């Protein structure tokens, strides 16, 4: 544990791994099934007597269930410690917070690195292609197994926001409120293009071994690091990169070679190499594919409004960031218009920030105030203490 | 409830308890908060400024950051009982479209407009030859957001053209209690600083001639309750 971690009050943490037997297989959108299914999850705070204060947090592409507690691999604080904890906007003194690792992930839930019982070896590329809808269906199984009939709120940023929208479309009767931050109703051509660069980098690494690197005793670290570097640029705004690095050099003078002369190069290389310590290359392929396949309106006859037709009782909050060019405000606005057209009550704000897509994880006081205000009002109308 | 903005007090009086209310240009949500507290309305705001939206969200109000000129089109028909547009119509790019949209979205609209026919405005232009700056219109011409100013007479004329019915009208004048008025009377176009209107759409004419339970054609006056009022107003 780092010093910083020691200083922050840790919420009461629970969780573990929910195991579903072969008889309770996960039905996948591709038509395949996944069994046995394991879902690794963390919980923070206490579930109240009538089980009405549960909040599900859906994590982004490379994050995991360690929202507000120290990460077991990196030793760093949970990824959303600034928003989740005692007295925080998502207050663990009031709410019972659940976050599960998505299926296809690599932090304990069933994914391509899990053992395929039929083969007695890791799935690798025999793991079925999954979707955002599949991730949400697995979460719904977990929530049910925890004995929770209705979630007070489902909250997520980025890919987590896509899951929030999917939840609202598929399980509106299980939701009281929903918060979608820096999300999108579908992946754009540009989104898919960037993901494809990442996947090709991984698959071009000779250590990838057609996905069977575990058996070969190798790891496609170079490819995964390049994938991360490319993706990381999309998470930041041009202004943020410029402000942070400009053309600053690592050392005095140029090397007249291909070392990391510029600080921004060094930063990206660090992002790449530290990522491979905590992430699995095949998981990266599968989860990015799930995001690329995501198109909520396509699942509902081409109409996003139709997707939300059953969600009229759910209270929505949609947030975007002004400098996010990965999932820009126009996409959140499309969601809000569809919600309005479907007769749903929705709040929407574009938060002014120059930090790009990653702003949802960073110090944005306005995001905190908005989360707190929205959740408190919803807690009041649900009669939560 | 002294210290309450006069138009808010009047709107509070007009709105039915428990109604679904859309407040277009809701600012920091003062009116929505008031209506929620006093009339238990199911409220939704639309606000263009980020500061306003943040304030509303922190108060727990439902608010969409957006533009009355372009975002009303996305709300479904008859999804609200009231749509409120307080002192904002004159800032819209297309006031006629906005009015039509308000009354598509809601059963009734509450619209207040500063009256450019008020004697102070007329006097400022006539005597000084300058663009008027009054309590209701405080900004100089070069920084005012008001791009479509009108008089009470202009406004009632637009309502007639859009086939909207004026269900009630009150004059709001600086610091005084709201006064119920007939906006058609020329004197009101001189002495009202701001007009607050409760509007609804005239009954849609049905394709088939209306009949009673026995299949007899109904007299025109029963099927068109606004006809009488319209004649009366025309004669006034």
Radius of gyration of chain B: 19 Å
Q: Helicity range of the residues of chain A? A: 25-40%
Strand order of the largest sheet of chain A: 1-4-8-5-11-12-13-14
The residue ranges of chain A in which pLDDT falls below 50 over 5 or more consecutive positions are 1-6
Query: CATH architecture of the largest domain in chain B, please?
Result: 3-Layer(aba) Sandwich
Number of helices of chain A: 12
The overall average pLDDT of chain B, rounded, is 86
Shape type of chain B: globular
The CATH class of the largest domain in chain B is Alpha Beta
Topology:
The complex is a heterodimer of chains A (385) and B (236).
Chain A: H1 3-7, E1 13-20, E2 26-27, E3 33-34, E4 37-44, E5 54-58, E6 84-85, E7 90-91, E8 96-100, E9 115-116, E10 121-122, H2 132-145, E11 151-157, H3 159-170, E12 175-181, H4 189-204, H5 213-216, H6 221-235, H7 238-244, H8 263-276, H9 281-293, H10 304-307, E13 315-321, H11 329-341, E14 345-351, H12 365-382
Chain B: H1 6-14, E1 20-24, H2 30-39, E2 42-47, H3 50-58, E3 63-65, H4 68-71, E4 80-86, H5 95-105, E5 106-114, H6 119-128, H7 152-161, E6 164-172, E7 179-180, H8 186-191, E8 194-201, H9 220-223, H10 226-235
Parallel strand pairs in B: 1-2, 1-4, 2-3, 4-5
Antiparallel strand pairs in B: 5-8, 6-7, 6-8
